[in-house]
């Protein structure tokens, strides 16, 4: 092996060793710098995603002051309260009594919320909340039956499939909203965000 000498006549072995060590230290430093930059970038992205991530809105809580699960528990309590044993079924329920008491609870909650926001339609708010609570309870009750190991497996599977179909159909209807205008086909329709409005309601023109 040919060894080169420097200007002083010394062999370059020590310099080569030092150069290799310096090179290793250099790339080690660059590696950790890049790693720290990557970690900082990931933290920044995580903060941005967390900041921009939309929060799930509980419609019932926003209108009635209590989350949906509280109202589902209330409805289940009313069902138990107004149910009685029967010969041809595990139990029967006084459905109209349950609906009536649930409506009373909803109306009382809406009366309290109306003080904070007096300009809302009581009929629409009541219908929205009652239907939402009943739909949520129906899905929860069906889910509970599907996972009740005391029931026959065939019945449980049928209930789970029913739950999935109901949830999909309910969501599809809310998104598609077929024939939503039919009950009010006598009125003149106008998009409230249109640039040029024909209505004379006294409001300022919409700015898009």
Question: Could you describe the 3D structure shown?
Answer:
It contains 6 helices and 2 strands, in the order H-H-H-E-E-H-H-H. Strand 1 and strand 2 form a beta hairpin. It has 2 domains: 41 residues; 120 residues, no CATH class. It is extended and about 95 Å long. A two-stranded antiparallel ribbon has the order 1-2. The N terminus and C terminus are likely disordered. It has 208 residues and is an all-alpha fold.
Helix content: 55-70%
What separation lies between the terminal Cα atoms?
80 Å
Structural class: mainly alpha
- Assess the beta-strand content as a share of residues: under 5%
Low-confidence stretches: 1-7, 204-208
Largest sheet composition: 2 strands, antiparallel
The total beta strand count reads: 2
Q: Give the ordered list of helices and strands.
A: HHHEEHHH
Count of DSSP helices? 6
What is the residue-mean pLDDT, rounded to a whole number?
A: 76
Please tell me how large the radius of gyration is: 34 Å
Concise account of the structure shown:
The chain has 208 residues and is mostly helical.
What is the fold's blueprint, element by element?
Layout: H1 13-52, H2 59-64, H3 68-81, E1 83-84, E2 92-93, H4 95-114, H5 122-146, H6 153-176
Antiparallel strand pairs: 1-2
Helix pairs in contact: 3-4, 3-5, 4-5, 5-6
